[in-house]
Design a protein that fits this description.
This protein is α/β, with parallel strands linked by helices and about 350 residues long. It has 2 domains: about 230 residues, Vaccinia Virus protein VP39 (Rossmann fold); about 90 residues, rRNA adenine dimethylase, C-terminal domain (Helicase, Ruva Protein, domain 3, Orthogonal Bundle). It is about 35% helix and about 15% strand. The chain contains 12 helices and 9 strands. The strands form 2 sheets. It has a 7-stranded mixed beta sheet, sandwiched between helices. The radius of gyration is 24 Å and the shape is elongated. The protein starts with 17 loop residues before the first helix and ends in a 16-residue tail after the last helix. Bound molecules: S-adenosylmethionine. The site of S-adenosylmethionine has 24 residues, from strand 1, helix 3 and strand 3.
Length: about 350
């Protein structure tokens, strides 16, 4: 029984070092895949400690590569470790590790962007959303080109309670480029406050755990790396559909140095832009001269509620995208042989 194991029995038997694994299987980092490895097990242990207590836990590690983090996850006592790795060159090394700890490592050769995480774990792991988080963790040191789109996808799945969140409030411990880690955790008023800060913080508690200098990786990337921990909130701080919140936040931050009313105006067709923006701000009781970085989650909640009520009163408003309209207008004018002049207003229908 996994539950009755002592911590000593979780320890890995003697294995080649990660450096030796790289040599043994001739694993050179692929620059175009942004592969940077962690060889120092004290550092991988430190990352794993950020996830919390992993004793007997179920873990999904994304992008295990040569398996440094995987070893730390196993040493911390995880009972069931599912690793998802895209690059087939790493599979033999991971198999060697799996054989050293029979029954504790499952290997999936696949792409985490398409892998069906909801099918990866037994139903026993599942907890009710309002309960304590399940004993299921997602951990990964992924290329930055993957970790940012992935966190956006996971935030959406957090909202819909699908994917890894079909098992409850699954916790995530992930690495990002240091600047992205700072944006994810930036508080109201800070210079790094952005779209990502609001989207992550309305759905989860986000902690920027520590920064790893680029020199700790082999080969060394051009940037430093931040370790970020996410715990989904029992209730999101904004109770409107994810897509609506995303659209609102995206529009506000597109003019990040201007007053917030400037970005909010773009939510509405030209013909009613000023009138409806005024009404939105009035209903939300938000000062139009606040800058986007000064808006708290509470302000965004009020704006999202007010925008949803306006959308409910006006057919087609929810689907309105000013960029899409601009594109269509340009296209139809081109077809009629007339390009719009710069700054020329686009005529739209009233609702
Ligand atoms: N975790 C290892 C470590 O810390 O040393 C490797 C880190 S390396 C930055 C990223 C790893 O993610 C590589 O092994 C790479 O092949 C893998 N990877 C990249 N994109 C992936 C994807 N879409 N799905 C699964 N694995 C991916």
């Amino acid at each position: 029984m996994v539950g009755s194991r002592t911590l000593a029995s979780f320890r890995l038997p003697p294995l080649p070092t990660i450096g030796e694994i790289l040599k043994l299987y001739n694993l050179r980092a692929e620059k175009q895949l942004s592969q940077n490895f962690l060889l120092d097990l004290r550092l991988t242990d430190k990352i794993i400690r950020q996830a919390g207590n992993l004793r007997n836990a179920t873990v999904c590690e994304v992008g295990p590569g040569p398996g440094g983090l995987t070893r730390s996850i196993l040493n911390a006592g995880a009972a069931d470790v599912l690793v998802v790795e895209k690059d087939s060159r790493f599979i033999p090394g991971l198999q060697l590790l799996s054989e050293a700890v029979p029954g504790r490592v499952r290997i999936v050769h696949g792409d985490i962007l398409t892998y069906r995480m909801d099918r990866g774990f037994p139903g026993l792991v599942r907890k009710q959303w309002e309960d304590e988080p399940p004993d299921l963790h997602i951990i990964g040191n992924l290329p930055f080109s993957v970790s940012t789109p992935l966190i956006i996808k996971w935030l959406e799945q957090m909202d819909s309670r699908t994917g890894p969140f079909a098992f409850g409030r699954t916790r995530l411990t992930l690495t990002f480029q240091k600047e992205v880690a700072e944006r994810l955790t930036a508080s109201t008023g800070s210079r790094q406050r952005s779209r990502l800060s609001v989207m992550a913080q309305y759905l989860s508690t986000v902690k920027n755990c520590f920064t790893i200098p680029g020199r700790a990786f082999v080969p060394k990337p051009d940037v430093d790396v931040g370790v970020v921990h996410f715990t989904p909130l029992p209730q999101p701080q904004i109770r409107q559909p994810f897509k609506l919140v995303e659209k609102l936040v995206r529009n506000v931050f597109q003019f990040r140095r201007k007053y917030c009313h400037r970005g909010l105006e773009m939510l509405f067709p030209v013909a009613q832009r000023l009138e409806l923006t005024e009404e939105l701000l009035r209903r939300a009781d938000v000062d139009p001269t606040l800058r986007p970085v000064e808006l708290s989650i509470g302000h965004f909640r009020a704006l999202a509620d007010a925008y949803a009520s306006l959308c409910g009163e006006c057919d087609g408003m929810a689907g309105y995208e000013f960029r899409e309209e601009l594109r269509q207008t340009r296209q139809s004018r081109r077809q009629r042989g007339r390009e719009p002049r710069a700054g020329e207003p686009v005529q739209e229908e009233k609702c």
